[in-house]
């Protein structure tokens, strides 16, 4: 196959991709590509739930204030305002479509509490909210004859005017304006072909896999960020990586998360000698924002040379724990032989969430026209320097919806029509190169090296000399990967490695550009700053032009 045409190309099948596809399907043919199985996404792993101010004594303004506070001076207030107000509508929409969330005896939504929230506002489906949402949306997608979903299909690169032969000889300084779709690897048939689309959305999730210990599934390799950056889009605030404080201390991939909701339910953190320590770090103790809890644990572990701390919820009964956290309770009991009502749970922090990403405006528009990005891939500005717990599923729903609405506006204006004349000129992917298995074995080791560098030098606590060292080493790894990439046959692991290496560079460069400690970025060489100044770290790729589409 060399070319396929669709109205909407959706790259990724998490909450963003699926919710966008369902809406777009009323207005055209939708093709979802996803690089693994359809339900392989961070969305499927989300436990705690979705934050929305729908409780009787809760209001969007309370949710707004909590989000802004967690973001430590860097949130885009308009984006947060959109999130907390439209979020209520999007959650209600999901319920009206038939999504079942956990309810109390009175039939009301059971609202949980998580760190940084001043009200109970976490709507959840037991403690496997993400899996339920993913399955619910997937079922709708599968029933929709206007949507095709292709598994084991991975976006390699976005197609832009750069690729079009007519424009090849154009002046290099000319602006790159539009996205025409993507080159895609069909992993089962080892084929690369183009999917040409009127509208493309990056719904590719985050990049936790830059780190060796991560709660993220193996698909989270920052592909969307790398694709967009290579195509000329800017990225923002990449240094803000959230480490979840309480991943189970057990070698398993991905690490098993003990949801924040368990602390919301009264769990306490204890050192290995049994003593409590969070009171020394924050008045909210265990319910302090995640960065503070993660840093407190990191500090105590380093000080004592220990590998883990304990999470203690033994004051609750088996019945209470099993009914509130069936997934965590049963997984711990059956898989890890830990009875959480009787034993402490050993936990460590693990890379969890990327707060930055591809710059988009309030309608999800990235720097290329006809290209949207939403969810963990995108930087809308709602997270600032630290995401408030359970805001990310909500952000995915809200901004996927806005991207859809924006695409309808463009469609009504026939804005995409001018692209048609160029579509024929999109060249086939140049498949040159030969398999080079021996060398691949060596290159593969670079993933481990890269992840170790990120963990050791670009982790929870950073310093400028360590970041500089990390950048030197990752630059050199990236050059080797790029060189190998240019002369070999392309495979999914190679593409992922290339994307992880590029994204890691972006994280380090952003971290070096930030001359302060703020939110999730803690650099021992700088004082903490929480002043409300939008000093975002923005990285522009070499081919980015100021005349680009996005004007946020
Ligand atoms: C363990 C865990 C618990 C969490 N708990 C919560 C919670 O309780 N509440 C909350 O709000 N958030 C939670 N989060 C965060 C939240 O789940 C994610 O931020 C959110 O689901 C991201 O949605 P997404 O659609 O942007 O990406 P994802 O759900 O990650 O989906 C990305 C999709 O893109 C595909 N993909 C990636 N690259 C390519 C490519 N190159 N080509 C084709 N396909 C590609 C992937 O295969 C996947 O289908 C949790 C995350 C984890 C890991």
Ordered list of secondary-structure elements with their pairings:
Layout: E1 3-11, H1 15-24, E2 30-33, H2 42-45, E3 50-51, H3 60-70, H4 77-97, E4 111-112, E5 122-123, H5 129-143, E6 147-150, E7 153-160, H6 165-168, E8 179-186, E9 191-202, H7 223-230, E10 235-236, E11 241-248, H8 260-264, E12 268-270, H9 290-304, E13 309-312, H10 318-324, H11 326-336, E14 345-354, E15 357-359, E16 371-373, E17 378-379, H12 392-412, H13 420-423, H14 437-457, H15 464-486, H16 492-513, E18 538-539
Parallel strand pairs: 1-2, 1-9, 2-6, 9-16, 15-17
Antiparallel strand pairs: 3-5, 4-5, 7-8, 8-9, 10-15, 10-18, 11-14, 12-13, 13-14
Bound molecules: flavin-adenine dinucleotide.
Features:
single chain, 552 residues, alpha/beta, FAD/NAD(P)-binding domain, Flavocytochrome C3, Chain A, domain 1, Methane Monooxygenase Hydroxylase, Chain G, domain 1, 7-stranded mixed β-sheet, 18 strands, globular, binds flavin-adenine dinucleotide
Question: What report would you give on this structure?
Answer:
By secondary structure, the protein is of the alpha/beta class. The chain has three domains: 3-45 and 127-239 and 355-422, FAD/NAD(P)-binding domain (3-Layer(bba) Sandwich); 243-350, Flavocytochrome C3, Chain A, domain 1; 437-527, Up-down Bundle (Methane Monooxygenase Hydroxylase, Chain G, domain 1). It is 37% helix and 16% strand. The chain is built from 16 helices and 18 strands. Strands 1, 2, 6, 7, 8, 9 and 16 form a seven-stranded mixed sheet that branches. Strand 1 (3-11), helix 1 (15-24) and strand 2 form a beta-alpha-beta unit. Helix 14 runs antiparallel to helix 15. The longest helix is centred in the C-terminal third of the chain and has 23 residues, at 464-486. It is globular, with a radius of gyration of 23 Å. The model has no long low-confidence stretch (mean pLDDT 93). Flavin-adenine dinucleotide (FAD) binds at residues 11-17, 33-36, 40-43, 45-50, 129-130, 154-155, 203-205, 215-216, 219-220, 223, 257, 353, 375-377, 390-393, 396.
